[in-house]
Batch of 2 targets.
Target 1
Amino acid sequence: MKQIVILSGKGGTGKTTVAAALAHLASQEATVTMVDADVDAANLELLLAPEKLETHQFVGGKVASIDQERCTDCGACIGLCRFEAVKRSSSGLEVDPVACEGCASCYYQCPAEAIRMEDQVAGLWYRSDTRFGPLFHAYLYPAAENSGKLVTLLKQQARQSAEDEKLDYLLVDGPPGIGCPVIAACSGMDLALLVTEPTVAGVHDLRRILDTVQHFRVPAVVAINKCDLNTDRRREIQSLCDAQGILLVAQIPFDTAVTRAMVHGRVVTEAADGETSRGLHHLWECLR
Ligand code: SF4
Ligand code: SF4
């Protein structure tokens, strides 16, 4: 099984559009499992219209809870908590579950053993079916943390399922940025496709994501999406790739056909055969 993660460093480059098109093209000739690892703002499902087969709770960590029966109201936990998560209310002391970081300082130091550390359900994850193959995706609750842990969970589930069913490809639509969920998305992958755009921010964030994947020793190739937006910035990306010995595998022009396809819930390679679709076909030829 070949495992490819699609990353961008910067949001808005068209990473998910490219990921969905690659899933479509892969499914034409092979079997593919997909992961939407952009768990803070999952949107691959908008294009793939998944039918949910399984729903599971995601336990993101622990949160403190005060047993009012045992609490002697000594107030020690208020001073102990560096996150100001313990508040006094009309019914006694309470923990704000959004502010609580789950450090357990209060749990270990409460003289009355009145504090419990409870599982915090931070979201839901799903195994779904789509017209291109299985999709593993998630919904992280507002203000919930541990998105890196959730990405790791999704990848483990997808990889296990793909291995059990002997599928050919695992495609991971990664999150933007270079933080913990991105590291979770790229770890252990065979190849990172970095989708960038010819803008100042696109070039800046391409450098950052290149540093990140190189640090974790994941081989990378680059595709420039909307390549005709700015010739100078496009050349800058080409020079950057040349200087670092990174293969520039595709340059995909801007095309309103992408938007028109999206409006109808389809990916551009399903809906149109123009220059953009041809660019994506070429990209898949380079990756497969
Ligand atoms: S430290 Fe324990 S006993 Fe004291 S106020 Fe907090 S929960 Fe209550
Ligand atoms: S677990 Fe840590 S963050 Fe949460 S209330 Fe206790 S001391 Fe504060």
Note: The chain has a mean pLDDT of 94.
Target 2
Amino acid sequence: MGTNGHNGLGTNLTYTKFLFVLPYQEDAPTLLKIRTAGSNICRGFFNDYDAEGSREGQPQETIQFLQADGTLEGREGISAARFVAQVSANYRPRLDEVMCELKRRIAGSADLMVLEGAERATRYTSAEMHNYAYKSAQPRVSGRTARNAIIMPMSKAAAWWEKSALERHAYFYPHQDSSGCPAKGHAKAAEPGISTIFRKLYHNPDGYQRPNEFDFITYFESTDENLPVFERICASLRDQTQNPEWKYVTEGPEWRGRRVLRW
Ligand code: HEM
């Protein structure tokens, strides 16, 4: 563990950090300080706001600014963040630099919470699953069209990780549940989202089942009109008769907001 890219559990392809900014106050000087910090940390990064199509595999360092509207009162943890930046790079220490710079620039005005993830090759995806769930997947479109961003961290129970990889595999495909009833499984339960919701899955770069950390971060982008589809697929995934996998899932706090060109 600890080396860039390899931890014995899978290979990290690229790294990402979600930087959640929680201002102490929402007055003009505080907001100015945060906005200035945002324009400083984005130097050298490609801004994903206007990203179109797929840039898979390209060694680009990217940033996406997000912002929550309305009142955040009563929310806790990352759900209470007014501003979020997602930075991605192939070289992990690059993201630490950005995080430290942001932290330094907003010190005294806002708290910073950080979630870290890594992209990895798919693990349960056969050629057929690829055709089904990835080939026709919604490509990334500009934040002017797909305005909404949703970040959902989650973990899986020890009983999940105790299963063999082959056994876990079945949960993503139509299968029979423990009582022999047919279950759609993850991909089929989420089918309406395939062509409508842009999705990204990040793994904990340092492995799974780590105390006080999440196993996964899921990230979604959607147009306003497709948000109801997103709610529907979440409901289907949470429905354990359709998707028995969710028995093993503990969802973390979720963050919702808008993609913006800058804070
Ligand atoms: C939009 C439609 C969706 C489709 C087609 C879809 C499909 C898939 C597929 C095929 C995998 C397996 C990836 C692999 O081979 O490693 C997967 C993994 C995963 N998906 Fe989805 N998904 C969708 C939506 C969602 C949503 C809404 C959530 C969260 C609420 C979610 C959470 C996850 C997680 C956490 C994993 C990793 C599970 C693990 O490795 O144990 N997915 N998804």
Note: Residues 127-260 form a domain with the Alpha-Beta Plaits fold (CATH 3.30.70.3420).
